[in-house]
Amino acid sequence: MKITFSQRNTLVVLLFFPIAALLLYGSDLSQRVFYQYGVISQDNEVRTSSISLLKVKRKGSMILGMTEDRKQQLLGVNGLFYLLDSNGLVTEAPLLSQVSFAYAVRFHSDATQHIDERFTYSDFELYLLDNLGLERMYAVQLTGDFMSLDLAYVSGLGGSSFFSVSEQQLFQHYDDISGCLFGFVLPSFMSNFFFEDTYVFYFISDDRQVAGRVLDFVLVQGDVSVDLKTKFTLDIPKS
After folding, report:
1. Cβ–Cβ < 8 Å for 151, 213
2. Going residue by residue through the chain (239 aa), what tens digit of pLDDT does each one get?
3. 73 vs 63: CA distance, rounded Å
4. d(CA 177, CA 149)
5. Ramachandran quadrant class, 159 (left: phi over 0; alpha: psi -120 to 50; beta: rest)
6. Partners of 234 in the beta sheet?
7. Residue 231 and residue 131: Cα distance in Å, rounded?
8. pTM value?
């Protein structure tokens, strides 16, 4: 069963982007879909059967999800897919990996802005709020060189703990690391439906050796890209 709703398709003026508006509303409407497979209940249990990564991959190049045994997270960025365990170990994800829950989008940048000065997580939050607000669905990528980076690793408890930060998780600090921060921003009315915040961001290093939930960072230089989504599709599998 699939549930779908759409946000009003209105162009957003981006104050700090080099172009004045989002222009790429092409004929391929699948580019505008925010896709979810599976359901997390109020008691943080995943109500779903499993699906292969190969099938989820057809829905998007940017993915956040969890494996069937709920012990690893699935991270997908730029069409490449990885598994992340509770110790921070990153491995390539086989396409036949079974997934119990996933968010996926076909990331297609509407606008990109180069950043060539010190840029913190707080700056990033204000940047998104001032330019796009927090009442829209969009995907974000921030690639570049980070002076410092703080990450959290999942505890393997399953449910929404995979997308929230708790005392049961491991934390790690990194200095002078390059890679890609990516994730989703959702309207406030959807926050409890997805995760405890209205946004969630993950990081994976250029050498694919470091990944995790982003807690804080200081960027030296990089590029931020935004992809606005106007349609949400929830795939509720038979269980």
Report:
1. yes
2. 444 444 443 333 333 444 333 444 444 556 789 998 887 655 555 555 788 999 999 999 999 988 888 888 999 999 999 999 888 899 999 999 999 888 999 999 998 999 999 999 999 999 888 887 767 889 999 999 999 999 998 655 444 445 555 555 789 999 999 999 999 988 876 655 555 567 889 999 999 999 999 999 999 999 999 999 988 888 877 65
3. 10
4. 8
5. left
6. 3, 36
7. 20
8. 0.82
